[in-house]
Amino acid sequence: MRAALALAGLSSLCFGIALVTSRIGLRTLDARSGAAVSIPTATVLFALAAPFAFDAGGFTVAAVLLFATVGLFFPALVTIITFRSNEQLGPTITGAVSGTAPLFALLAAGLLLGEKVPAQAALACVAIVAGVAVLSWKQGEVRPGFLRWSLLWPVSGAILRGLAQAGAKAGLALWPNPFAASLIGYTVSSAAVIGSNRIGRAARPALTTHGFAWFAVTGVLNGGAVLLMYGALSIAPVSLVAPVVAAYPLITALTSAVVLREEPVTRRMVAGATITVLAIVYLVTSGVQ
Fold first, then answer.
1. Residue extents of the structural domains in the chain
2. % of residues, the chain, pLDDT over 90
3. pTM beyond cutoff 0.85
4. CB of 108 within 8 A of CB of 233?
């Protein structure tokens, strides 16, 4: 399972950095327009790589339908929701709430796939969620009334992320081809976000070179993250992959502190990072298969 853990770790790294690059892009562009740049950018790269990376061996229609179904909401809808949450709540609260995704992933894997969740994986998952919450949450950032509706953005994103991992795992069980899963899912997602972006165009900011560039980079990072995550899911259960991928807010916080210098490193950040890292170490050394 070392290969799966390595792939999941790299996926978390890419997701974490992508949240920082999208944060920069959102300074000049709205969520839907940003998604309409980032997801098609990754899709084009997948298409260009297809002649060299695509393998039709083991092809099944059922797997294609599952990958396409997942593509309707991941990464399409999840990306828009995450960007929108960033706009309304900021990256810290978005990261903290989004970090609950592995809880929904483990629940979906148990209910939909019949996957047995080891006690060690469940404990590590809860610890990672707690660590991410401590790491990301900042006192004073909660505005009055935000719990009523705005919190639905990151909560919805976390639920959909969890369902996407279970759905992708189901498809990969039929056709263990991470590249095909990524290509099909991103192709469907591109159609979804481009269509969504054409609704209400006049009310949103114009596309700039700066915004396009940052969201294109975000697309490359997120595309790589999804491919790596699917690679991990093709050889390991959701209970092992989901908690490691969910540690991406740790990468976001460290990248923001070092590169953007938006906030100093505090004892809260150190405590959250320590809890998260120890939880991952526990998961890795607990022998979960």
1. 2-285
2. 41
3. yes
4. no
